[in-house]
Amino acid sequence: MALRIVMMGTGGFALPTFRAILESRHATVGVFTQPDRSGRGHHHHLNPLKELAAERKIPVFQPEKVNLPEPLDQLRSLAPDVCVVAAYGQILSADLIGVPRLGFINVHASLLPKYRGAAPIQTAILNGEDETGVTIFQIEPKLDAGPLLALERTPIGPKETAGELEARLAVVGAALTLRVLDQMEAGTTVPLLQDSTQASRAPRLKKQSGQIDWNKTPRQIDCQVRALQPWPTAFTTLVTQSPAGHPLESPLRLTLLEVAPAPPALLVSPALPGAARSATPPVPPGTVVLADRKRLVVQTGQGTLEILRLRPEGKRTMSATEFLAGHKVAAGDRFDAAVQ
Question: What is the pLDDT of residues 14-44, one digit of tens each?
């Protein structure tokens, strides 16, 4: 018998799963999603789940706090067999979890028990992981700690951003969810308890998470730049200096969108002879060691990093070549993330 399903989710990660359920033989009887939000300029952010549910004439509920008595009664009135959660953004109470006959399942973008929490995709890239995946698990009151129902692995591309990886994992999660729902319908799921001793956390990111620490390695900074796209993005500030070391202009905040370890051939600046040949930084991390017409290379804590794409504050995204054509940058100038 087809299952009665309530979908709980918000945003692009949940959308493929919602579409897959709608196209399955199971019946979607309701959608819970976050309340509409207004951004800068009071523009409403589009909610793709809400829009799709409206097209299919499926009831939509948007409680500010889902664990209050009214949302609880609304969920009971739908009489779901199971609730599917994907990036919903609220912690669920034991009373809510107990409503569906088969409970709640969650589509989580990590290989649990690794990276429990709100930012598993970003944290996996930030930590330099080579692979990640999607886990479907049975929700319990403790955060992301319920029994595992299915898991699928996938490599992380060497240049893949969090946004690109999220889009891939959303598709993986949709197919995996359907497999689990069919197993739940047939009564053939085999729950596997998580090994809590192997658990790690992936807390929600903040804007200040984007500040670049130039004492880190090129690899670590590259991971940060990729992990924080599309939000909050990695940033630094540029201070151009006179030969006497005095600032020439106000610090310029830059969002870095693509970087790479600098090839050995690029590591010598005429202004800083042999600057990057030493095993230890001969100049402070964050110092520009090469700024010609095409390339912008910066000293890090171990080796040098080439900036390939960036966005000056208030400007469009551009290549390093385009940026250098419009800004006077020279070896010895400094990037300093401490400037707000």
Answer: 999 999 999 999 999 999 999 997 655 444 5
How far apart, in Å, are the Cα atoms of 65 and each of 72, 89, 263, 304? 10, 10, 52, 48
Reported in sequence order, the residue ranges of the chain that DSSP labels E, i.e. its strands, are 4-9, 27-32, 60-61, 82-86, 104-108, 131-138, 148-155, 234-239, 252-261, 288-291, 296-299, 304-312, 318-319, 334-335
> Pairing mode, if any, of strands 304-312 and 318-319?
antiparallel
Q: Which of 19, 86, 88, 85 is nearest to 56 (CA)?
A: 19
Average of pLDDT values for 101-125? 98
CB atoms within 10 A of CB 25: 12
Q: Give this prediction's pTM.
A: 0.90
Residue 165: partners with Cβ closer than 8 Å, 6 or more residues away: 121, 124, 125, 132, 156, 157
pLDDT in tens, 83-98: 999 999 899 999 999 9
- What structural domains and CATH numbers belong to the chain? 4-198 (3.40.50.170), 207-335 (3.10.25.10)
237-242: Cβ within 8 A, 24+ apart: 237/335, 237/336, 237/337, 237/339, 238/327, 238/329, 238/333, 238/334, 238/335, 239/333, 239/334, 239/335, 239/336, 239/339, 240/327, 240/328, 240/329, 240/330, 240/333, 241/332, 241/333, 241/334
